[in-house]
From TrEMBL, chains A, B, C, D:
Protein name per its UniProtKB record: Persulfide dioxygenase-sulfurtransferase CstB
Molecular-function annotations in GO: dioxygenase activity
Gene that produces this protein: cstB
Matching Pfam families: Lactamase_B (PF00753), Rhodanese (PF00581)
Organism per entry: Mammaliicoccus fleurettii
Residue ranges occupied by any Rhodanese domain in the UniProt entry: 360-443
CDD domains tied to this protein: POD-like_MBL-fold (cd07724), RHOD (cd00158)
PROSITE patterns noted in UniProt: RHODANESE_3
PANTHER family from the UniProt entry: PERSULFIDE DIOXYGENASE ETHE1, PERSULFIDE DIOXYGENASE ETHE1, MITOCHONDRIAL
Keyword match Metal-binding: yes
Keywords: Dioxygenase, Metal-binding, Oxidoreductase
InterPro entries: Metallo-B-lactamas, Mito_Persulfide_Diox, POD-like_MBL-fold, Rhodanese-like_dom, Rhodanese-like_dom_sf, RibonucZ/Hydroxyglut_hydro
Length: 444, 444, 444, 444
C-alpha cells in the first residue's frame, strides 16, 4: 500500500493519497481544488486516481471533491449522515453517498466509514485496513476534523459562520460521544487528521503531521475529560471568531462552484480596487503606496486576508509577479478568483512608528485592534477597541487628522491596521511596533 | 531607448519590446497571445506597456494584439491599408488603424508607418527613430514578414490557405515594389524581422536574429533580381504547401478569438481522441501505444502537428506532464485549445524497421510520404505517394494486413506515418529508418 | 514539536528533521550529504539546526553526519556501541559518542538512546518523548535499519560487503534479542524507519512511510517467529547479493570523505570513459550509441549503476543536461564524484529484439543475466548464466560474432546487458523483451 | 550561421555564441566564468563549442576564457598585441595568441582580428564574414570595449586601477586612431559591443543591445570630434572612479585563477564577518540587524558591493536562500568566492529617517557620501564629505553618539552608509531619504 500526506501550508490542511499497488488504483482523501500535487505523485508512482472521499463539508477551504469527479471521472464518496438541509447538494453523477459502517474498497485496501459527528453533523471518518498487505487489523483513521493532534474539531462554526442557532451545543454533545466511541479502538491505530497547527478549525492543534490513537488517549485533553458537561464547556470556551470567509466556504462546499483552472493577472491599469501589499511588514513600513493594506504572503496569509475579502468585489495585489501568482493560487484554494490586477511595490509613504517600550501612557487616540479575548485580559486605559477584522467596515471614532497610535498584541495586526486607516483617510498614524506585549510594565 | 527581441522557437517567430526610459512607457511589436514574457521584462526594467502594434494579419500563429488591448488597456495599432474585405474585424475600442506615413510616438521614440505589401495586402513596417536618444536619423525597421534575413515573405498564403484566387501574383508584384522602395533607405538601418529559420512564411529564412539593410542589399536575393518578372517567378516558385492550420490562423487573426488563459489538463479517462506522442522518435519506436501518432516536441512540433489538427475536435497528448504542459502552451500560440487529456507513455508495440541501406528494391507496398516536390525529383519505382500531411484523411490503397514499407526523405516524417497507419488499422508496417536519402544508389 | 520525514527516492532512504518551537532548535536524524533539503525546511519554519544523530554506519549511502558538524557547526551524536574495530574513525570535534540509555535533549524534546544491534553491531535507535508538548510518555522511535515497515534490517552486509566472517550469524542473533526488547514497548509508539520499499537493506520492506509498534507486533514477521533458530533462518535466507558499491559506503561512512559540494560537468571531449545512457529503455533500444550502457534514471538507478561503478575510474553520462545533473547528484549521495563529462543522446544503432513469446527453444547462445536465486528456480536448458552485475568484469563465453539471445526476468536487466555486450565487442545481440516471465509455458 | 547575444545584467556585460551549421562548431566571444548559459544553447541548437576568443584583458569581471580551454578542451584566441608586461600570463596549452589581421575560421565563418587599442593596449576586435552563408562582405564587428552604443571604452583604468602611470593619455591617443580606422569600414556593419548601459567601462553607454557602424558614425560622439586633442579631453574628462574590485579583476584576468565551480553556503554559526543585507532599501530601513550593510540585490549590486570587498576576507550575506545563491553566483563572476555563510533577515533596529524636504539647514553633523564630482557641483554648507566607497576604511570625524544626518544624491547610497555607520559604532543616525536632489531649494 502506498500512503502520502500532502500538507497545504496556506490552509494548515492535510489531504492524503493512498494507492493499491496490486491494482494501480489511487484515492484522495479530502482533496483541495487544484489536483496538480496529487497527479504529480500518482504519475510518478504509476497510479490512476479512480476514487476520492471527503470527511465533511469543509468550512475553511474550497473542496476539490467535485473536481476529482468531473476532471478525472473518478468515483467520489461523501457523507449521507446528518440532516438533509446541511448536506451536499448538486453533486456530480459520480457521487456515492455513504453512511456509518459502509465499506469502500480501493483495490485491496478497505475503508470503513465511521460516523463521527461533532465538528459538523455529517462528519465521517475512514478506518483503513490494508488487506492487500495481508493485514486483518486496521492501520489508521482518516479523522478529518474529528481528532487532531492534541485537540478535536470545534463545534461552533455552523452557528457562527452560517447562523444555525443552537448547533454549537448539539455539536459539542456529539463530539463527546464520538470521542467515547474512538476510545474503544486499539492504541496502535494511526491518526491522520485534516488539519495541523494554525488552523482555525480548532483551538490548539499540534504541529505534528500524524499521531496514534494510544498516544492521544493519554495526551489529548478530549480523551481525558470524563464528564460530558465539562467536556462541552472546555470545547466551546474561547473558540476564536472564525474569519469572514468561512461562511462563503460552507456555501461553496455544500452547493458547488466552477471547476478550478489557473488564471493570469496583468498589471493594474486603474486604481479602483482595494489593494493588498504582500511584502513583509518591514518592507511595507520602510515604504509603501499610501492606502494599501499589508498582508504579508506567509503561512497566515489566508487567515488574515480572509477577514477582508468580499467575494463580490475585485481586489488588487502588490508584489513581485511570482509572489502574486502564489497568492492568487492560495486565494483560489478558498474559492476566491477575483484578483483583478497586480502592481509592483511603490513607495510614497514611510510608516511612522514607535516601539511599545517608548509609550508613556499619555498618548491620546490609542486604537487597540486585538481580539475581544485579548482585550478582556487587559488593555490601555485610554484605548478604543476595534478588532482588526472589523476595521474595514466599521466606523472609526477619530478625526481624520488626529494623531492615532495603533497597536495589537505583537505588531502583526497593527501593521495591517495602518494600511486600513490610511485607506479610510486618516493621515497621522503611528504604528506601535512591539504591540501590547512589549508595553512598559507600569502601563499594563 | 530599451530594445529586446523575443524569439519563440515553436513558431520561429520574433516579437519585440521597446521602451522609452524618459517616460517609462513600453510597446510590443507583433505580440503573441501569452503576454507573460513581455510583462516579465517590462516589470524588471520598470516599464508600463502602454502600446502595441502589429505588422499584418498573421497566417502562422494566433496574434496577441487584442490581448494587449483587453488585458493591459493599452493602445494598439494595426494596418488600415489593403482591401477592406481582408482587413481587421471586431477590434477592441483601444484600436488605432494606421496608414502609410502615419506617425506613432512611444514617449520620445518615433515610429513611422510604411505600407510594404507583398506578403499580404495590408502589411506595414515600422521605421524607428530614437529621438529621445538624440537621433534624427532612423535606427531600424520592424519589417514583419516583408524583409527577412536573406529572404522576403511569401505572397501565396492568401491564395493557398484562404483561397483568394489570383492573390499570389498580385502579392508578388507588390513585393517587388516594396523591395524597390526599401532599397532607397540608408544602409545602416537595422532590420528587425518577424521570423527566422524554419518559419513556413518564406522559403529560405536565415537563422540570424537581425540584419542591416546594407547587408541585405548585397546578400539578399530579393534586392538582386532586377526585373519584375524574374522576381515574381523566383518568389513564387517552389513555395512549400502551407500547414493545415494556416487557414484557421487567418480567420482567428482577422476576426478574433477568446483571450488567452492557461489551462490544466488531466489524465485520460477515455480513449476516443486522436493521441499524439511527444517523445523522441527513438523512444516511440522503441515502444509505444498502438495507434498513437508520434510528433516529437521539438522546434518543428507546431509545423508538424499543424497538418493533423482539426480545430473542432479534441486531442490527447502522450508524454510526461511537463512536456505536455509545454506542448499545450505551444498549441495555444496557434489558437488550439482542445487538448482534452494526457497519458503517460505506455508500451504495447515496438516499431519494425529496417535501415534504407538494407532495401533491395524487391519490396512491394512501398509508401512514400514526402512532399510533391521531393517526389518529383525522384522516387522508387514501385512506391505509392501520399504526402504525410494527407495521410490522416486520404484513403490508403493497401490491405490492412499487407506488409507496408513506409519512407520519407530522412526518417522524421515516416515516423509520424507509422502511427497514422496503425491508427487506421494497418498491422504490418516497416519503418525505413534512413529515408530516401540513404537508399542504396542503384535504387534511386 | 515539529516533525518532518524526508524521503530520498534514489536511495529509498528516510531521514528526519525534528524541531523544538520553544527554543528554535532543530536536529536531523540520519542525514544525507547534501543538507539543502533540511536547511530549506529549517529556514522556512524558523529553526536553527544545532544537532544531528545517526543510527548506524550506513552501508548503502554516504552519510551526511560529518557535513552537519563541519558546515553547521552542530553537535553530532553517533553510536559508541559495538566493537571498536567496526566503529567510527576520524570524527570531527563536534562529535558525541553515545551508549545505550544515554539521553539527548533538543530543547524540550528528549531522545533516549537504545542499543538495538542486529543489522550492524553498533546500531542504535532513538526513543522520542515530547516533554515540551507536555507528554511524559514516548511518542515514537527512530528505528534506523532495525525495524522497517513489515521487515527488519538484514544482518549479512558486514560479511558480504566487508568480509567480516561469521558476522551474519552474530547479527541475526542480536536482531532476535533486539526484537524481543522492542516487543516490550507500548503499542502506540510510532516507528520512524530508515528505509522504505526498494531498499537493499532488507528483503521485503513495505512502502508506507511510517508505522506503529502495535501494528508491527501483529503484522511484521519478525515479531511473530518465536524461536531464535527459526528467526535466524528466516532472516538470513535468500537475502539478495548487495550491490557492488556497498563496501565503498562502509569505508566512507566509517572513515569519512570530503565534504559535499555540487559540481558541474561539461560535454565530452574524448571518448575513453565507460558511458551510461540515462534514457528509458524504449529510447535506448529505439536508437543509441554503440557500446554505451543503459541505466534509466529512475528510482532504481542507484541500485543498478552501483554494480558497475569503480570508485577509481571516471565515467560519462548520456542524457539531457537536466537529467545528467540529477544523476550526478544521486551519485554524490553514494559518494561517487567521478562523472567526467556528459553527452547528448546520439543514435548509431537500433537494438535487435524479439518478444519472449516468440522464442522457440531452438536458439543457441542464450545468456541469462538474472540473479542466482532466480536461476535456481528454473531456466532455459541451453542458457549460460552470468548475473548482470558481473557481466562487465567476467569473461563471456561466446564468440564476438555469435548471434546471442540475452534475457532476464522481465526485460530491465537484459536492457543493461545489451550495452555491456556491445561494449565488450559482441556484434550480434538480440534482446528478449519480455524476459523469462513471458516465455512460452512449454519452455519453462 | 547562428548568432546569439548573452547579456549579464549583473555585469552589464555582453558575450556571444556564434555557430556554423555546416560543421556543427560553435565559438564564444568574451565568455564569463560560468559556461552554463552557453552550453545550454549549444546543446539545444546541436553545436559543439570548439573555440572561444576574447577582446582584451577585462577589468570589470573575471574572464571565462581559461575555463573554456580547460573544461571544453576548446581552442582559445587572445591578443598578442600591446606590451608584454601588460599581456596574458599562465595561459593553457589550447591558447592561440593572435595579432592584427590574423584570420580565425569557425567552420565557414571567418573572423579577422583587428588591433583596436585605446581602452587597453592589447584590445582587439573581430570582424565577422559569413562565408558559409554565401557572403564575401563582413557582417559585423565584435568590438569588445572599443565601440559601445553611443560611447567608446574609457582609457584610464590601467592607470587608476593598476597604477600604470601615463597610460590614460596613451590610451586616449590610441582610441582616437582606432576610431579613425573604424570610420573607414562600411556603414552596414553591425556593432556587437562588450557592454551596455550601467557598465563602469565607459561614461555613457546606451542600453541598446547592438547598433550599426553607420548609425554610430552619425550619433556617437567619438566619430564626431575631429581633432585629436579635443577627443582626448572629452574622453578623459569626468570618468568616474572605478570600483575597488577592478584592480583585482586585472590581476585575475592577466594571471588566471581557479576554474569556476558552484558552491553552497550554510547558515551562519558565528558573527565575525561583515554582513551585507540583500533586501530592498525599504525592507532594510523597516527593520534590520544592527551593523549590517544594505546592498540590495539588483542590477547595480556588483558595482556597489565592489567598493567594499576585500578579496582576502570572508563575508556573510543576509537574505532568503534563493537570493543569496544568486548573489553568490554574481560575486563568482567577479572572482569573489569568499561568502562564508548566510543569515535570514532579522530585525532589531528600524532606521530613523526624514525626507530631504523636511531638512531645515540647521542640522549639525551632516555627512554627504556622494562622489567628488557631485560634491563639487554643490553641497550643504555644514556637510562633511566622504564618498560612500571610502566610508568603510576612512575615519569618520564624528562622535559615536552624535546625531548624524547622512545623505547622498537620491537615497540609494545613503542607505548603504547607514549600515556602515552602525557597523562602525555610531548610534544616532538619520537617513535623509530623498537625497540632495530633493532638498528644499533654499538650501542648495
Amino acid at each position: 500500500m502506498f500512503f502520502k500526506q500532502f500538507y497545504e501550508d496556506n490552509l494548515s490542511q492535510a489531504s492524503y493519497l493512498i494507492g493499491c499497488q496490486r491494482t494501480g488504483e489511487a484515492m484522495i482523501i479530502d482533496p483541495i481544488r487544484d489536483l496538480t500535487k496529487y497527479l504529480k505523485v500518482a504519475d510518478k508512482e504509476g497510479f490512476t486516481i479512480t476514487k476520492a472521499a471527503e470527511t465533511h463539508i469543509h468550512a475553511d477551504f474550497a473542496s476539490g471533491i467535485r473536481d476529482v469527479a468531473n476532471k478525472l471521472n473518478a468515483s467520489i464518496y461523501v457523507s449521507d449522515e446528518g440532516k438533509d438541509e446541511f448536506n451536499y447538494k448538486n453533486m456530480p453523477k459520480q457521487t456515492h453517498f455513504v453512511k456509518h459502517q459502509d465499506i469502500i474498497y480501493l483495490g485491496k485496501i478497505k475503508l470503513e466509514v465511521l460516523h463521527t459527528p461533532g465538528h459538523t453533523p455529517e462528519s465521517i471518518s475512514f478506518l483503513l485496513t490494508d488487506e492487500g498487505g495481508g493485514s486483518s487489523i486496521p492501520m489508521g483513521l482518516f479523522s478529518g476534523d474529528f481528532i487532531f493532534v492534541g485537540d478535536v474539531g470545534r463545534p461552533d462554526l455552523l452557528e457562527k459562520a452560517v447562523n444555525v442557532e443552537g448547533s454549537t451545543k448539539i455539536g459539542a454533545k456529539q463530539m463527546y460521544q464520538s470521542i467515547q466511541f474512538a476510545a474503544t479502538l486499539p492504541d496502535y491505530i494511526q491518526i491522520w487528521p485534516g488539519h495541523g497547527a494554525g488552523s482555525p478549525c480548532g483551538k490548539a492543534l499540534g504541529s505534528l503531521p500524524t499521531t496514534t490513537l494510544g498516544y492521544e488517549k493519554i495526551n489529548n485533553w478530549a480523551f481525558n475529560v470524563k464528564y460530558e458537561t465539562s467536556f462541552i464547556e472546555t470545547l466551546t470556551l474561547n473558540q476564536p471568531a472564525p474569519p469572514h470567509h468561512f461562511s462563503q466556504m460552507k456555501k461553496i462546499n455544500q452547493f458547488g462552484m466552477q471547476m478550478y483552472q489557473p488564471y493570469n493577472v496583468y498589471p493594474s491599469s486603474s486604481n479602483t480596487q482595494t489593494a493588498f501589499d504582500l511584502r513583509s511588514k518591514e518592507a511595507f513600513h520602510g515604504g509603501h503606496m499610501h492606502g494599501t493594506i499589508n498582508i504579508p504572503f506567509n503561512k497566515t496569509f489566508i487567515n488574515q486576508i480572509g477577514w477582508y475579502l468580499d467575494y463580490d468585489k475585485d481586489i488588487e495585489l502588490i508584489g513581485d509577479k511570482s509572489t502574486v501568482q502564489q497568492a492568487i493560487h492560495a486565494l483560489q484554494l478558498i474559492g476566491f478568483e477575483n484578483v483583478k490586477s497586480y502592481r509592483l511595490p511603490q513607495t510614497n509613504i514611510v510608516t511612522s512608528s514607535i516601539h511599545s517600550s517608548e509609550m508613556t501612557g499619555e498618548e491620546h487616540n490609542v486604537l487597540d485592534v486585538r481580539n475581544d479575548d485579548e482585550w478582556r485580559k487587559g488593555h490601555l486605559k485610554q484605548a478604543i477597541h476595534i478588532p482588526h477584522g472589523k476595521l474595514l467596515n466599521e466606523d472609526i471614532p477619530f478625526d481624520k487628522n488626529d494623531l492615532i497610535y495603533v497597536h495589537c498584541q505583537s505588531g502583526v495586526r497593527s501593521s495591517i491596521a495602518v494600511g486600513i486607516l490610511e485607506y479610510k483617510g486618516f493621515t497621522n498614524i503611528v504604528n506601535v511596533r512591539g504591540g501590547y506585549q512589549h508595553l512598559p510594565a507600569f502601563l499594563k
